[in-house]
Amino acid sequence: MSVAGMRPVLSLCLNLALAWASASPQTTCRLRERFHLNGVYRKGDVVFGGLFEVHLLTVFPELSFTSKPEQPRCERVDVPGFQGVQTMVYAIEEINKNPDLLPNITLGFHLYDNCVKLGVAFRAATALVSGTEESFSDFGCTGPPPVLGIVGDPGSTHSIAISSVLGLFRVPMVSFFATCSCLSDRQQYPSFFRTIPSDAFQVRAMVQILEQYGWKWVGLLFSDDDYGVHAAQGFHREISRFGCVAFSEMLPYNNDRAEVKRIVGIIRSSTARVVVAFSTMAYLLPLIEEIVLQNLTERQWIASEAWATSTIFQARQLLPFLGGALGIAIRRGEIPGLQDFLLSIRPDFDPDNNIVNLFWEEMFSCRFKADSPGRVCTGQESVEGAKSAYSDVSALRDSYNVYKAVYALAHALHDLLQCTPGTGPFPGHSCAELHTLQPWQLVPYLQRVNFTTSFGDQVSFDENGDALAIYDVMNWQRAADGTITAVTVGVFDESAPPGQKLQLEEKNIFWNTESNKPPRSICSEPCPPGTRRAIRKGEPVCCFDCLPCADGEISNQTDSRECYKCPVDFWSNELRDHCVPKEIEFLSFQEPLGISLTTISVLGACICAVTLSVFARHRNTPVVKANNSELSFLLLLSLKLCFLCSLLFIGQPQRWTCQLRHAAFGISFALSISCILVKTIVVVMAFKAARPGGNTIKWFGMQQQRGTVLAFTIIQAVICVAWLTAASPVPYKNTRLQNSKIIYECAVGSIAGFSALLGYIGLLAAISLLLAFLARNLPDNFNEAKFITFSMLIFCAVWIAFVPAYVSSPGKYTVAVEIFAILASSFGLLGAIFAPKCFIILLHPEKNTKKALMGRDAPKQ
Fold first, then answer.
1. Tens-place pLDDT, residues 128-165
2. CA 470 to chain centre
3. Collapsing DSSP states into helix, strand and coil, what is residue 754?
4. Beta carbons of 86 and 406 less than 8 angstroms apart
5. In Å, what is the CA distance from 746 to each residue of 461, 477, 554, 597, 650?
6. For residues 313 and 288, is the Cβ–Cβ distance under 8 A?
7. Torsion 556-560-563-564 (CA) sign
8. In angstroms, rounded to a whole number, what is the distance separating the alpha carbons of residues 667 and 114?
9. CA end-to-end span of the chain
10. 57, 460, 587, 727 - which has most CB atoms within 10 Å?
11. Which residue segments constitute the domains of the chain, with CATH numbers given?
């Protein structure tokens, strides 16, 4: 049997009140009992059903099971809910008068009150899909169903429960107020549609408002129902990318006063100054009452669409507590002619049409039954004269969504009836027929519906049955009479480009603070640039400490989660918010140390030049001749080169200076030590030649002396060439020695080459020292060995002390130590060898004679 054929049987299963109970059970079914439901109806060719919240409270009888249970009783009329009922009635009448939409079809309606209780709502839903006929015997399933589609239910929990059952038979439901994001699941709710956006979009809108004002530390309240729980889950997901939830509390469903007091205490003790509330009015009322009792002010409230425009919370006495609240509201619309229709309402004494009478009694505080206590209603009371939100159409929101829902069903039915055989969505491209029409056949047309209201809003549904997401942003401001009024101050449009979804008129927003400025709600102050966030252990990520970035690291943004290392050639500035080029350090000619060493080097070279000129001028004197004048001139020239080569160590290293400085230093000192070594050899040989039978000096004449000096120097030159060829020194940026500086230095390249250069100089110096030491006791006329010994001691002492000083000196001072060693050893050689001779030549010329030199004019004892 098809779904259509099973409709009466399945609907009987849904309606628990139906049973087989007649004398002819094979041909007739009759109602065992009828639910007591408040409703309004009108017959038509096709009937639309509706579920509305007309009453706020439901009183259930006690179930003792000792007597027949009484029907539940609904109390306290919800004026906006009744306005929604009348809006649906008006929309259907308007459609019936429209010759272009559903021509020759009269729409009827059957609307019920759910009394904000799932039990009542489910009874109403089963009554809609099963029908209310006293008996039923048409098993051929001819004729239209009791209702073709249902507008409602407004509650998310109700819609979930009802759609879970009615969805099995693909009965279309178009809710105007159920926002739970869970209802977007097409697998569970295949025939559910809504003209209000899903909570997923509402949550995004709220989080964007929080982000706009930097409210990263917020409290969350939500009702103990599907609407509140799912919205809270979505809010937790969305806020995690921007801020944190300071506390999250569920409002009790049974209005437990102790629980409500506990929640208010949490709000008071929390440092969060912004409170987001996803709740219906019924859950929120006890909390607001407790807030007033405890005088809890200075909180910025963010209202969900369920209470953002509620008139219940807009009383004068609530201004200090709720004034300045921001809320997400359903898109406001306009319905031409609705107000006149609302004012034309009159009582109806049909017992199945009792909603109007119940509203009338509540509005005018009277009773239609004469035996009931209180004033008797005449039915002629003036609705227009009564100041009530019922006739206020200046900000239609819920009712506007009802209006769109009715028209969505009507347009879908119109498209269905316009189907041409062969183009339909059913098997064989067939179309539905009015006389055999079933609710499930309307679903594919409802999915594709697309029209524009008289107000200019487009109505369509996405693949999940959701409407286009667009909200008004409301601000609760002080009205002229001292009460609170909800004023539109912005709009959130999900279809807008990124960055333009939320548009606020900030100059029109009222803030309930002394400064009339947005409050601050953060757990920790933002970390300035130059610091990073350090999360406190065991606390939300919005609670943190600000730690300065380490040396060489920066953060150039507020609230940076980490510091970033500067590039190799850069270092952090003092504020740690920018990378600046590292200070370049090298021994410069402009700094005091460089100037001092340059001056000393030039001075040493000048002294060498002066000494050379003195020796050249007195080259024929015995002192100069006796000390091998040619080697002395060569030694002075090499010492001058030693002084000047130290200048290559000053200034920014270049490739050529790095290569030349060590080569010049090595060859100059090798030449100097070679000259001293040869002079020492000459002294020793001259002493041996002076002995009887000694003739060794003739084998070491000037040619041999020059050749020896040249040979010793060439060896050092070969070492330098080999070193420069294999791995020559190059300029090097040393960033490891001092992180904040770039030390320009010359990398020696080959350690072996550098060691060979120094080792060879040390070898020559050691040999010279040994020979000079052995010749120290020669006769006075050959006493130059003493001076050579002293000079070699100075030279060796300087270079032995150089090694630890060189290794331990940082940066440019390494170069300074090397220059100091060069200058000190050069001055040691110059002073020890040539100072005594210049002293005699310049100050005691009387001693610069052959007799004096040979010691013959020495005074006799």
1. 988 766 655 554 455 568 899 999 899 888 999 999 99
2. 26
3. helix
4. no
5. 75, 75, 31, 18, 11
6. yes
7. negative
8. 109
9. 156
10. 587
11. 7-198+335-405 (3.40.50.2300), 531-581 (no CATH), 592-854 (1.20.1070.10)
SS (H, E, C) 328-387: EEECCECCCCHHHHHHCCCCCCCHHHCHHHHHHHHHHCCECCCCCCCCECCCCCCCCCCC
Strand partners, 113: 52
Element spanning 814, H or E: helix 812-843
Q: What angle do CA 113, 115, 117 make, to 5 degrees?
A: 125
Alpha carbon 194 to chain centroid, angstroms: 34
pLDDT tens for each residue of 239-257: 998 889 999 999 998 778 8
Q: How many residues can be counted in the chain?
A: 861
Classify strands 107-113 and 39-42 as parallel, antiparallel or unpaired: antiparallel
What is the DSSP code (8-state) at residue 573?
-
What does DSSP say about strands 326-330 and 300-303: parallel, antiparallel, or unpaired? Answer: parallel
User: What six digits make up the tokens of 567?
Assistant: 């590039």
CA distance 408 to 450: 8
* Whole-angstrom distance, CA of residue 680 vs CA of residue 732: 41
Question: How many CB atoms are located within 10 Å of the residue 498 CB?
Answer: 5
Beta-carbon contacts of 452 under 8 Å, excluding residues fewer than 6 positions away, are 458, 459
Alpha carbon distance 841, 838 (integer Å): 5
Is residue 328 within 8 A of residue 279, CB to CB? The reply is no
pTM, rounded to two decimals: 0.62
Among residues 838, 759, 831, 840, the alpha carbon closest in space to that of 793 is found at: 831
- Say how many C-beta atoms besides its own lie within 10 A of residue 174's C-beta: 30
d(CA 364, CA 358): 10
| DSSP bridge partners of 343 | none
- Residue 797, SS3 per DSSP: helix
**DSSP-derived 3-state class of residue 94:** helix
Whole-angstrom Cα distance, residue 563 to residue 554? Answer: 5
Q: Give me the residue label for tokens 């080999």.
A: 722
Q: How far, in Å, are 89, 444, 453 from residue 458 at the CA level?
A: 22, 19, 6
Torsion of CA 545, 546, 552, 556, to 10 degrees: 130
Contact 300, 274 (CB under 8 A): yes
Rounded CA gap, 639 and 362, in Å? Answer: 120
- Asked whether the predicted pLDDT for residue 185 surpasses 60, the reply is yes
**Vertex 391: Cα angle to 353 and 177 (nearest 5):** 70
What is the residue-wise DSSP string for 766-795?
HHHHHHHHHTTTS-GGGTHHHHHHHHHHHH
Query: In three state form, how does the secondary structure of 219-280 look?
Result: EEEEECCHHHHHHHHHHHHHHCCCCEEEEEEEECCCCCHHHHHHHHHHHHHCCCCEEEEECC
What 3-state class would DSSP assign to 745? Answer: strand
Sheet holding 18-19, edge to edge: 18-19, 29-31, 135-136
Residues 6+ apart with CB under 8 A from 482: 316, 319
Q: What is the mean pLDDT of residues 594-601?
A: 88
Token pair 């000192």 is found at 669
Candidate ranges 83-97, 225-239, 349-363; pick with highest mean pLDDT: 83-97
Q: What distance in Å separates the CA atoms of residue 214 and residue 46, rounded to the nearest whole number?
A: 53
Percentage of the chain surpassing pLDDT 70? 88
**What is the DSSP pairing of strand 192-194 with strand 217-223?**
unpaired
Q: Which helix (H) or strand (E) segment is 499 a member of? A: none
Q: DSSP assignment, residue 429? A: G
Whether residue 15 is predicted with pLDDT greater than 70 in this model: the reply is no
**729's tokens:** 């020194």
Yes or no: say if 355 and 113 are a contact pair by the CB < 8 Å rule.
yes
Q: Say how far apart CA 788 and CA 790 lie, in whole Å.
A: 5
Residue 552 forms beta bridges with which residues? Answer: none
Q: Say whether 743 sits in a helix, a strand or coil.
A: strand
In this structure, what token pair is assigned to residue 280?
Answer: 């219906």
Q: Phi and psi at residue 826, in whole multiples of 5°?
A: -65, -45
Whether 685 and 700 have beta carbons less than 8 Å apart is answered as: yes
